[in-house]
Design goal:
alpha/beta; Rossmann fold; 8-stranded mixed beta sheet; globular; hydrolase activity; Dienelactn_hydro; CMBL; AB_hydrolase_fold; Carboxymethylenebutenolidase homolog
Length: 245
C-alpha cells in the first residue's frame, strides 16, 4: 500500500502517452531502447533513466528528440532487470530500494553500451544525459570515464557525489528553483566546489519556478506556465551536446 501522507517527490509530473520511434535490443547482458536518425551519424548519446526505469515513455520521448537532432540515442536498462520504482510503492521503503540500485556502479553496463555504439552504430563521439537518478550517474561518469565527450545532468541528486568535483569532460547541470529533492543550497555548494576544483568547461543553470522532473516529467500542453522553461531546458541540453560532440 502506498504511503499517501508521504508520496515519493519524484512522482511530480505527467506520464506521457508515447510509444516511441525506436526499438528494444539486447546489448550484452542488458536490454536497451535504441533510436537512430534517418541519416547516418557518428554522434551518439546515452540516455540514463530516472527511478522509473528505461521503459518510461517520457524518457523514450527525450531519446527520440535527440534522434531528430541528429544523434543515435540509446536508453539502456541500468537497473539490469531489477524492477523500476512504481508510483504505487511505499515511499517509506525508497531508501532501501535505491541502495540496491547504485548510480555510481554502472561502469560495466556503460562499457557494454559504448562497445555497442561503436561496433553496431558507427559512433565515434559519444555523450551522456541523465535525469534524477540518471543525473547522478552522469556526474559519476564525468568524473571517471575517459571515453565520453560530455554530459548533461538533469536534476541529478547532488548528495550522491557531493565530495567529488574534478570533472574530466564539459558538463552541464540543470536544476529547478523549486525542487523539493535538491535544495538550492546544495546547488550553490556544487557551484562553489566546481569553481575550486574543475578544470574543464561546466555550467550550472537554475530554471525559475520549476520543480523536480520539469524537463521530462511535465507536458507543455497541460502546464502552460512551465512551457517556456520545459522548452528552454531541452533546447539548452541540445545546444550543449551540439557544442561538445
Amino acid at each position: 500500500m502506498a504511503n499517501e501522507s508521504r508520496p515519493c517527490p519524484c512522482d511530480i509530473g505527467d506520464r506521457f502517452d508515447y510509444g516511441g520511434r525506436g526499438q528494444e535490443v539486447q546489448v550484452g547482458h542488458i536490454r536497451a531502447y535504441v533510436c537512430k536518425p534517418s541519416a547516418s551519424t557518428d554522434k551518439a548519446v546515452i540516455v540514463i533513466h530516472d527511478i522509473f526505469g528505461w521503459q518510461l515513455p517520457n524518457t523514450r520521448y527525450i531519446a527520440d528528440m535527440l534522434t531528430t537532432n541528429g544523434y543515435t540515442a540509446i536508453c539502456p536498462d541500468f537497473f539490469v532487470g531489477q524492477e523500476a520504482w512504481k508510483p504505487s510503492n511505499d515511499w517509506a521503503s525508497f531508501n532501501d530500494w535505491v541502495k540496491t540500485r547504485d548510480a555510481g556502479k554502472i561502469d560495466k553496463e556503460v562499457d557494454v553500451v559504448l562497445k555497442y555504439l561503436k561496433d553496431q552504430c558507427g559512433a565515434k563521439k559519444i555523450g551522456v544525459i541523465g535525469f534524477c537518478w540518471g543525473g547522478a550517474a552522469v556526474q559519476h561518469l564525468m568524473l571517471k570515464n575517459p571515453h565520453l565527450k560530455t554530459g548533461v545532468s538533469v536534476y541529478g541528486v547532488i548528495s550522491r557525489f557531493e565530495d567529488k568535483h574534478s570533472l574530466l569532460h564539459p558538463t552541464f547541470f540543470i536544476f529547478g528553483e523549486k525542487d523539493d529533492i535538491i535544495p538550492l543550497e546544495q546547488v550553490t555548494l556544487l557551484e562553489q566546489k566546481l569553481k575550486q576544483n574543475c578544470k574543464v568547461d561546466y555550467e550550472v543553470k537554475i530554471y525559475p519556478g520549476q520543480t523536480h522532473g520539469f524537463v521530462h516529467r511535465k507536458r507543455e500542453d497541460i502546464n502552460p506556465q512551465d512551457k517556456p522553461y520545459i522548452e528552454e531546458g531541452r533546447k539548452d541540453m541540445i545546444n550543449w551536446l551540439n557544442k561538445y560532440i
